[in-house]
Amino acid sequence: MSEAGKETTIFQLADQFIALANELSAKEQDVSKVGTAMRFAASRFNAFEAALKSADLAAEKENALEWFTKEYKDMLNDNLDDHIKHPPVSKAEKTEEPA
Q1: 58 close to 52: Cβ distance less than 8 angstroms
Q2: Model pTM score
Q3: What dihedral do alpha carbons 74, 77, 81, 94 form, nearest 10°?
Q4: pLDDT at 34 exceeding the cut of 60
Q5: Cα–Cα dist 68/65, whole Å
Q6: Nearest to 65, CA basis, from 77, 54, 76
Q7: Closest CA to 65 of 40, 78, 46
Q8: pLDDT tops 90 at residue 70
Q9: What is the DSSP letter of 99?
Q10: Distance separating alpha carbons of residues 21 and 56, to the nearest angstrom
Q11: Half-sphere exposure for 20 (CA within 13 Å, toward CB)
């Protein structure tokens, strides 16, 4: 297999973050708390990414905010559409016997 074929995709990486978030949600019993922590972690890491890529972050801050905001909005929009088409099933719904 080529080196490119072995490369982890962004979707595989995202699935690893989601698996951890699911574990934490089960442990904490608080999806909102875990969601907030993920957004904070993403913003912290994205600020670090922007700082590494920028020669003058203060001058480029507004552009970075616009770019990251657009990226997040587009991704969130796609995922909301997916959940509209395929609503999540709760554990209670999975274990209920059909009538």
Answers
A1: no
A2: 0.78
A3: 110
A4: yes
A5: 5
A6: 54
A7: 46
A8: yes
A9: -
A10: 34
A11: 8
